[in-house]
């Protein structure tokens, strides 16, 4: 959704500009911000962790309390992954860790030593979108877009889970391979909340990528 | 979150010793419940012992023809295991009815047993709660109690146990294997594992400080038709108002356990003699002595009707 047209300004770019001007205005209090950013290691326990995020290895030293979500957003500046509820209820923070979708808000970064993390930025780029990203655009699978990175990461993992034969609550026969039905998709996506209610378009986008006709 | 130090361990005995010698220490595995509670400062450990490096993530056949499920087996993997789907379907069904795909990918077998209640007053740190702050009182009693226990509660606590998996484990007569700080192992029948609240609702299991769950074992398959029926406010991703786990044999005999009604998975073996007589007779024995509130009295007929539906499904 980024645009190269110089005459249009996307909401994201407007927000980036706003944040930058906010940073300029905050210059007088820089020393205060720095003090918050680098607490004395005597009082706040830190730990080292090495993560591979979207194919790139990062060696980090973090406050042990840092969630994977905050490490991605605040330390690595990968702000595609969103913080919604921060309690594992909304799914906006969904990323793929070692091939499995998880709520990055309910996982400590230091518990991911050696993990391979894929965020929405690692699935595709505005120029070369992942098929799931392209399908969300084609089907208008969002309104405000805040839950979208989590929806897309979750959807990619859902299709992988079905292909690996992992059953769900609505799988009729536990001893058979799960089918790719609308009921299955909806049940499996229930950990991703969309308050705009774009669910039917999200389901259409996933169905298309799965090879069905929405 | 309050600051904490962090340690990875390599053996169960090392893990148990690390927690036993430090009163502020807690084990962390999936973290999906503990971190949620730490963010709210309902839990405030000063030291976390990360047990994920332990080699406890496999499911193996046991010597007596059952299954030994490692403590770190993720809920997704347990539900998807071919042997569980074939021989212990009620366990797969219970697991799949709980949480979301993301949470099941992280949550572990042991952690699921140790889930803490979802009582809204336990979560509201501005309100007294004997489970969160022993001796402070119970805000649920006299409060909004639609979700709460109808049996087995006390004047100190009427919270319910939130786990679906634990209800199936109780039905299947699972056993909990542990190791203690001195390295000694023991086996706890699931029936004895969770406690009723009594005067000490903050003590939820019989585990000792530092005692680590290493596995949950299932006896040889019981046969029969396995059903797990969960009734909740949403079709997916919600805790149970009532859940019924049952194994029904061809002759009409069987067993039944309930979720959403008590401080622990609720099973009364003596009630199961009435299985051939139907849901009404079983429910009357299962919930004898129930003390519902005006908000949750609906759970009694709901149990009976859900059990009737389960028995009908098993017969069909």
List the keywords.
heterodimer, A: 214 residues, alpha+beta, five-stranded mixed sheet, disordered N terminus, B: 316 residues, five-stranded antiparallel sheet, three-stranded parallel sheet
Roughly what percent helix of chain B?
25-40%
What kind of oligomer do you see?
heterodimer
Task: Describe the sheet with the most strands of chain B.
Answer: 5 strands, antiparallel
Give the DSSP E fraction of chain B (strand runs of 2 or more residues): 15-25%
Shape of chain B: globular
Mean pLDDT of chain B: 98
Question: Would you mind describing this structure in some detail?
Answer:
The complex is a heterodimer of chains A (214) and B (316). Helices cover 36% and strands 13% of the residues of chain A. Chain A has eight helices and five strands. Chain A has a five-stranded mixed β-sheet, sandwiched between helices. In chain A, a hairpin with a 2-residue loop joins strand 1 and strand 2. Chain A is globular and about 55 Å long. The N terminus of chain A is likely disordered. Chain B is an alpha+beta fold and 316 residues long. In chain B, the strands form three sheets. Chain B has a five-stranded antiparallel β-sheet with strand order 4-5-8-6-7. Chain B has a three-stranded parallel β-sheet with strand order 1-3-2, covered by helices on one side.
């Amino acid at each position: 959704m980024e645009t190269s047209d110089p005459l249009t300004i996307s909401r994201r770019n407007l927000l980036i500009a706003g944040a930058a001007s906010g940073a300029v205005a905050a210059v007088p209090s820089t020393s205060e911000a720095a003090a918050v950013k680098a607490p004395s290691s005597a009082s706040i326990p830190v730990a080292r962790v090495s993560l591979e995020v979207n194919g790139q290895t990062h060696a980090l030293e973090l406050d042990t309390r840092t969630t994977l979500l905050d490490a991605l957003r605040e330390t690595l500046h990968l702000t595609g992954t969103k913080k919604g509820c921060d309690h594992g209820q909304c799914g906006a923070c969904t990323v793929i860790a070692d091939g499995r979708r998880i709520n990055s808000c309910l996982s400590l970064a230091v518990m991911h030593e050696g993990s391979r993390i894929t965020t929405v930025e690692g699935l595709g780029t505005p120029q070369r979108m992942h098929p799931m990203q392209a399908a969300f655009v084609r089907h208008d699978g969002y309104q405000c877009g805040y839950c979208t990175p989590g929806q897309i990461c979750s959807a990619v993992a859902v299709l992988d889970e079905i292909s690996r034969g992992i059953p769900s609550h609505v799988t009729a026969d536990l001893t058979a391979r799960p089918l790719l039905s609308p009921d299955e998709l909806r049940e499996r996506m229930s950990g991703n909340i969309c308050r705009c209610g774009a669910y039917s378009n999200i389901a259409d986008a996933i169905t298309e990528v799965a090879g069905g006709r929405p | 979150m309050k600051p904490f130090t962090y340690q990875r361990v390599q053996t169960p005995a090392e893990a148990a010793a690390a927690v036993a010698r430090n009163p502020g220490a807690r084990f962390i595995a999936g973290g999906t419940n503990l971190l949620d509670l730490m963010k709210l400062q309902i839990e405030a450990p000063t030291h976390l012992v990360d047990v994920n490096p332990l080699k406890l993530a496999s499911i193996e056949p046991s010597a007596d023809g059952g299954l030994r499920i490692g403590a770190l087996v993720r809920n997704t993997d347990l539900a998807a295991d071919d042997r569980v789907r074939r021989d212990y379907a009620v366990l797969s069904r219970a697991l799949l009815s709980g949480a979301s795909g993301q949470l099941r990918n992280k949550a572990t077998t042991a952690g699921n047993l140790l889930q803490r209640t979802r009582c809204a007053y336990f979560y509201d740190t501005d309100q007294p709660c004997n489970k969160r702050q022993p001796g402070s009182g119970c805000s649920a009693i006299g409060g909004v109690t639609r979700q709460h226990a109808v049996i087995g509660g006390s004047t100190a606590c009427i919270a319910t146990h939130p786990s679906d998996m634990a209800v199936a484990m109780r039905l299947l007569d699972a056993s909990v294997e542990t190791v203690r700080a001195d390295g000694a192992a023991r086996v706890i029948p699931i029936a004895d594992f969770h406690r009723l609240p009594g005067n000490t609702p903050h003590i939820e299991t019989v585990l000792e400080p530092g005692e680590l769950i290493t596995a949950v074992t299932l006896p040889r398959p019981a046969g029969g038709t396995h059903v797990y029926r969960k009734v909740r406010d949403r079709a997916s991703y919600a805790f149970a108002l009532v859940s019924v786990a049952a194994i029904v044999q061809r002759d009409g005999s069987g067993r039944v356990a309930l979720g959403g009604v008590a401080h622990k998975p609720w099973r009364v073996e003596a009630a199961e003699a009435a299985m051939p007589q139907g849901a009404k007779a079983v429910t009357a024995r299962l919930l004898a002595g129930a003390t519902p509130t005006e908000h949750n009295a609906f759970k009694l007929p709901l149990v009976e009707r859900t059990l009737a539906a389960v028995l009908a499904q098993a017969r069909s």
